[in-house]
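Please, why this fold?
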Amino acid sequence: MRDLALLVIIGWCFLQAFRRPWIGILGWTWLSIMNPHQLSWTLSTMPFAAAIGGATLLGLFMTKDRRDYSQSREGIVLLLFMAWMCITLPFSIIFSDSFDLWKRVMKIDLMILVAMVLIHSKRHIMLLAWVLVFSIGFYGVKGGAFTLATGGSYRVWGPESTYIEGNNEIALAIVIVIPLMRFLQMQMQAKWAKTTMTVCMALMAMAALGSHSRGALLALVAMGLVLWWRGKNKLLGAVVLLVLGAVMLSMMPQEWWDRMNTIKTYEQDDSALGRINAWHMAYNLATDRIFGGGFMVSSPGVFAIYAPEPGRVHAAHSIYFMVLGEHGFIGLFLYLTLFTMVFLSAGHLRVKGVAQPETRWLSDLGSMLQVSLAGFAVGGAFLSLTYWDLPYNLLILAVAGRRWLARKEWAHEKEEPLIWWPEFIKKRFAKKRAALP
């Protein structure tokens, strides 16, 4: 029954993608981020994301909906980064493995560019935020409940055969999405809805702690500091954050504390030493080769040449050193420039959005995007989610929000309101009854 329901939803998204490709973008994002088919019994190997992506590309040229082909600085830098990865590919040390990952990365980045063309209205932006929150919130809320039920004795893991399968990866994804949940909560009016979202955010934070990821802990601390700094009443904010942190940390077992304490004694931790060795290898590789080593450089042959400890082969587990080793200093410069621009665009929304009541939702969006990016910047220093879709979806939200603000659509364009599904169903049935003779 679950597989049939999933198949119906995916089929609907596929058909809608031809006529309304922005729905295809939402469906493709949902499949790419959440990977719901991995939770099914018979559909896990089906290329649903590719099918909806292809339908969306066709719909891009067939639809009568408005499309925005204007270039943003983020879009231009992303194109430059894609071009640089194409240049570095032929110089890959292990070409066959690099080519496979290159194809995957190019598909993701292409759909990000398409999304920037199709996502342009407030309704699109809000729905994309909901898709991201639901896709990761499903695992985060469930993982937080699991952590509470088990006292944190077991780790929270992501869905198998996905980018976020590991405990570190799912933890960073959860951290990135928590501020988006707060953004949606700020737009809610009903008290029960706000309370529900508060509970969900608390469970998400518990899931991040329950992953036993040290990078996630640092990312949560970074986000908490940004929220505290942005708050109007810093004394009250500090007290609230300290109390919440103390309550959550008190629920974690001694095993968790022992693992977190290795942050201070990293020189005695084999995993930490392996990462540091991989970082040195990436730096030496980038210094020796202007194009880097291409994708997939974590191999014994590469470590034998460039690592201080050749026998300690370890993934970099860092978005920065991963790009540095694979695409050199130029690639790292483009990557950092891209997300710096996203952060600045979010800041522009935060400052300019407060000017009018109709644009204050953009101020909320920009503020929470900056919090998400702070968590990504800190957590990503110790985790590998360099090419995954979720951080690039923050880019889409920032670019679409800034375009909306520039056009001042709030002054002359009527947006379709976001309504709850029960009300939507009532209206549909009312229209059908009115059409009957």
